[in-house]
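Progress note, project year one: complex with 6-O-phosphono-beta-D-fructofuranose.
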Amino acid sequence: MQDWSAIEGLGSTKLTELFAKDPDRLAKLTVDVGGLHFDFAKTHLDDAAIDAFTGLAATMELAAKRDALFAGQVVNVTEGRAATHTAERGEGNPDDVAQARAFQSRMRQVIDAIEADAFGPVRHILHVGIGGSALGPDLIFDALGRDEDKYDVAIVSNVDGVAMEEAVKGFDPAATLLVVASKTFTTTETMLNAESAMAWMREGGVEDPYGRVIALTASPDRAVEWGVDETRVLPFAESVGGRYSLWSTLGFPFALALGFQAYEELLEGAAEMDRHFRLSEPAKNAPVLAAFADLYYSQVKGCETRATFAYDERLRLLPSYLQQLEMESNGKSVTAAGEPLGRNSAAITWGGVGTDAQHAVFQLLHQGTRIVPLEFVAVVEAGDTLDPAHHRQLLLNAFAQGAALMAGKANADPARAYAGDRPSSTILLKDLDPRTLGALIAFYEARTFVNAALLGINPFDQFGVELGKEMAKAADQGGQTFDASTNDLLARAGLA
Ligand SMILES: O=P(O)(O)OC[C@H]1O[C@](O)(CO)[C@@H](O)[C@@H]1O
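Model obtained:
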């Protein structure tokens, strides 16, 4: 039974007073792990809040739930399976780790074969997938693959044909490797995009486009049925959830384009964060503290959203990635046992890129009536080679925003006054490389898990996405009427 009374009874001391009251505040609320520095000092967490949340974590059996996750037990109770994404990076039940390693070494063999020209010329990689089968790979490429010129990589997710047409512009069909990424190998958007990519290759003179396809899937039989040769199907375990799948063979395009070693480093960075999450006490555990702050704002302070601002162009896709991770995992109205949640589910995740966002949405963050807990993500080492003034301005702005939001500023003119006491946390990476990115993503996964555990949610299913898919199929098949508004829209677009 959830007991939030101790948490709801917490005082509401201002952030600046929290600093004044406790000279050790910074040391207490900062954590260093895997090349990442986490600073939660500008949140309202204090000793009392951490104690209260630690009590809730004990009641909600966080430690046992975490151990069950890493032991490969059935934690996805509504679908009756484990969630074995951590085994992909070597942290899990030995059988799951062995299976992951076997699939990964098969992936390596295929990469070696491509490198040895077994597929003929490959200069372009066209990856089709959606949701978890695109967002993770897209984030990683955008963050780490910018200087990569061995392959051109395009990731197509949207069913809008504009996306596919745009992606293949400048690609030579005869030098393109088509990667079809779908856990289920049934997703409408992905299968249609894959068919169109095949048609494009045929039209481009490729006689046997199937010979240029790699399938990444947990449903290898369906991929074979679709026409992919068994030797070019790279399976991963059914127990790896879609939004947690980038560590599995779904990381194939990354491992091919940036090298298997980079892929291994990504996994090692994540494994380091896994060990930190498993072994550190709550008060010094980065994902646990982050989740305590999330829950303080969403459950006690009624904040409806939280926002991540990446002060690094290379991490501009992080907010989109986090939207799926957090909202698909924890946007639920019932507990794992099917009982009504009885409180708010996860906050709405949004965000953007600094400094652009400062000139667009930060007005509301500084002076609006809604409090949005913010997160700044920045990297000490610059990603560019221009005048260091660029990176200096980037970081100065990130840190200044957090300081300004907290400090506020009085003014006799109310329109020019800043209330302050607006919370933020900062994640500072020493550098952006496969290891630190792996650790960062694993941090978010663990934080999402802790939020779920303390709310009693199963973060590993996503039934909420099914109804819309069913209705789109029904509309496609025709013969079914909907409400007057939908019928009218279908008719106006010539679809009825
Ligand atoms: O990898 P698949 O099976 O094509 O699914 C794509 C995405 O669709 C979803 O099931 C939601 O519609 C996501 O959870 C998943 O990442």
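The pocket of 6-O-phosphono-beta-D-fructofuranose is lined by residues 130-133, 182-184, 187, 190, 242-243, 328, 462, 465 (CB under 6 Å).
The longest strand covers residues 305-311.
No further modelling is planned for this target in the current period.
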